[in-house]
């Protein structure tokens, strides 16, 4: 991941670091690496989303570990210099600046010691469709609901998960959501 950081412009790297800090502080549900990767590629830099996701995971681990160990900015930079000799100078400057400015907010958080191990729900979209025909059946007229859940995994990567349901399955799904809502109202 260290050699891939070389290709990321400093402003994009700083934005990535800040998004990770915001995620660790539970201010945003996750880091949208797909959107950031597209913007980096539009600027003329060749990087793929897999490499950017690896960098985001490494930085998330770095910041959460530094928070758990209550490291000062200088301790973090000294540790990085001794552990990772290939980290570019601009990346060290950004990490130093971001940790100096916003790192204390993570260490002050009680949740810094118990970083979430489950994903977080971000958004849900659905659409109703009808399968009219297929190569094996001329007339299906089969209604279905496609649901797309946007979730942030524990490292903060935002992904979409899609699935289809029949109308009876969707009605059951909807009923369960209504039950959850009524239980939440009593809390």
TrEMBL record:
InterPro entries: COMM, COMMD4/6/7/8. Residues 120-187 form the COMM domain. This is COMM domain-containing protein 6. GO terms for molecular function: NF-kappaB binding. Pfam families: COMM_domain. Scaffold protein in the commander complex that is essential for endosomal recycling of transmembrane cargos; the commander complex is composed of the CCC subcomplex and the retriever subcomplex. May modulate activity of cullin-RING E3 ubiquitin ligase (CRL) complexes. Down-regulates activation of NF-kappa-B. Inhibits TNF-induced NFKB1 activation. It comes from Pachyramphus minor. Belongs to the COMM domain-containing protein 6 family.
């Amino acid at each position: 991941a260290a050699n891939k950081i070389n290709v990321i412009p400093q402003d994009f790297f700083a934005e990535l670091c800040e998004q990770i800090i915001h995620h660790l502080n539970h201010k945003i549900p996750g880091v949208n690496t797909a959107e950031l990767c597209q913007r980096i590629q539009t600027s003329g830099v060749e990087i793929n989303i897999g490499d950017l996701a690896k960098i985001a995971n490494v930085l998330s681990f770095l910041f959460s570990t530094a928070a758990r160990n209550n490291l000062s900015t200088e301790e973090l930079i000294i540790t990085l210099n001794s552990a990772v000799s290939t980290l570019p100078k601009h990346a060290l400057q950004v990490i130093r600046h971001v940790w100096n400015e916003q790192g204390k907010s993570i260490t002050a958080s009680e949740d810094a010691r118990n970083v979430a191990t489950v994903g977080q729900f971000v958004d849900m979209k659905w659409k109703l469709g009808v399968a009219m025909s297929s190569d094996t059946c001329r007339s299906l007229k089969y209604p279905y609901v496609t649901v797309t859940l946007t979730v942030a995994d524990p490292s903060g990567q935002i992904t979409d998960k899609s699935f289809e349901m029949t109308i009876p399955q969707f009605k059951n799904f909807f009923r369960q959501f209504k039950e959850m809502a009524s239980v939440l109202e009593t809390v």
